[in-house]
Amino acid sequence: MITSEKLLVVGPSWVGDMVMAQSLYRLLKARDASIEIDVLAPAWSLPLLERMPEVTRGIELPVGHGELSVGLRRRIGYSLRGQYDRAIVLPRSLKSALVPWFAGISRRTGFRGEWRYGLINDMRPFDPERLDRTVLRFVALGLATAEEDLPEPPEPRLSVDSSVRDDVIARLGLEVGGPVVALMPGAEYGPAKQWPQENFARLAGRLADLGFTVWILGSEKEVPLGREIERGAGSSRVRSVCGETALIEAVDLLGGANVAVSNDSGLMHIAAAVGVHTVAIYGSSTPDFTPPLTENSTIHYRRLACSPCFKRQCPLGHLECLSGIEVDAVLAGVERRLEPGARAVS
Length: 346
Prior knowledge:
The protein is an alpha/beta fold. The protein has helices at about 15-20, 20-30, 45-50, 70-80, 100, 135-140, 160-170, 195-210, 225-235, 245-255, 265-275, 320-325, 325-335, and strands at about 5-10, 35-40, 55-60, 85-90, 105-110, 120-125, 180-185, 215, 240, 260-265, 275-280, 295-300. The chain has 2 domains: about 5-140, Glycogen Phosphorylase B (Rossmann fold, 3-Layer(aba) Sandwich); about 160-335, Rossmann fold (3-Layer(aba) Sandwich). The longest helix has 13 residues, at about 195-210.
């Protein structure tokens, strides 16, 4: 009798990383269709994991970002004993390796880091030059050995529920006449990843003047930002729904857009993963490290001498990496994808 291998993956804590981790799950499924993949992850990510057909089950890890919570991790680990053949630990922290160790999983794969000897018993060398993209770091841990050649990662592909999208559009009274451009002006990491608010407002206004419908998406924290952009655009065709949708509802709304314009953020990776053309704007980060994982994208990145700095705030105080990206350039990239008569939301 052939039994399926059961795998526990300790997932990342950021939205974009959680989306990129789907490349690992897709690779594992392509190599062994019978494998069962469970993912230990924060509560917010469980609905997102449900949109990944490769994942059998999402298991909540109810701890805050950065919290050690050894007792809670021990209880979760003990509750999972005897259920898994192996584990893959994506984060490089010590605490992230505790649950698989407490669970007694025989093979626990992860990168060298934070003195995890013993907790990780299939220790992989961490080579930042070879693993120069986040997605490669995830995929590498799914290989049989550290010596195996890295494959090209499969693109993340989140499923979309059009009935949920229709319900959200009706509930919020969103405009759907004509092609839709989704704008994502926030970035949880900090302002050094955010294209200036006034640029988003000018872009939104000009898109509206061209007859396009504009949705502004973001979290509760971005409500003031979304309102200012909506106000600055000066058009009824521009609507901010920041803070008015759950993350999974944003997935479905993006699945109905024609183009998405975004900073390097979790929503950017979601847009790429649902197949919408993604116009990505980079400041303190770089598309060399966290690109949208799709060929269906346009990237704006200035490659200044000070870039990438990976800082939350501009250390030089000028933010030229972002302010130097012109509205006309971003608009031209959007217009190339949106011809008059392009499909509206269906």
